[in-house]
Specification:
With 199 residues, this protein is mainly α. Helix content is 78%, strand content 0%.
């Protein structure tokens, strides 16, 4: 009889334990749904959201540096094309129109000069509009555009003359003066872009 009573007591105790465990599981399930008592959820909720202006700031800097990189690259192409023109000038007798294998280098100079100079202008104006604190009508920007126009106009004459020379017209060789004007204009343009006087 005592064994039966002890067995019944153990069974009753086990039922109470099971019932308590079931209640705890139910309470935990409700807490999970409500987000109560979850350190991970609290950490997520307490983390401040990134401000939209900070997102714009990061993308703005990336965009600015990309424009600046291609602007500087275009300036490098322009200067390289100018160097090629001077090399061809020296190889053809400094305006005498002498035959030279380096005359073919003027074709590469045409491409570098054309792509570089146009890209410098477009990206330069874009940066002047895009960057806060700069305006297209700033003095140094206007000077840069004028210098670009001078270099571009003379460069077009030089490129045209070398094209005629490649076709056999030796008397069409451009002179030293045109190359010098190009070089001075480009040098002044680079100084203006780097130091931005009056900005």
């Amino acid at each position: 009889m005592d064994q039966v009573e002890q067995l019944g007591a153990r069974v009753g105790e086990q039922r109470r334990l099971d019932l308590a465990a079931a209640k705890r599981d139910a309470a935990d399930a409700v807490s999970d749904q409500r987000g109560v008592g979850q350190p991970r959820n609290r950490a997520i909720l307490s983390t401040p959201a990134r401000r939209p202006d900070s997102v714009r700031s990061v993308s703005w800097h990336d965009w600015y540096h990309m424009l600046l990189f291609f602007h500087v690259l275009a300036a490098f192409l322009t200067v390289t094309g100018l160097g090629f023109y001077w090399a061809v000038l020296a190889a053809t007798g400094w305006g005498a129109g002498l035959p030279s294998p380096l005359l073919r280098l003027s074709a590469a100079a045409d491409v570098l000069w054309g792509i570089g100079s146009v890209t410098v202008l477009l990206l330069g104006i874009w940066l002047a509009i895009y960057v806060k604190g700069y305006e297209v009508w700033d003095g140094w920007v206007i000077v840069a555009i004028v210098l670009w126009a001078i270099a571009g106009g003379v460069g077009g004459r030089v490129a045209g003359a070398y094209r005629k020379m490649r076709r056999g017209a030796a008397d069409a060789a451009p002179n030293v003066a045109l190359h010098t004007i190009m070089a001075v204009a480009i040098l002044a343009l680079l100084i203006d872009m780097i130091y931005k006087p009056g900005a």
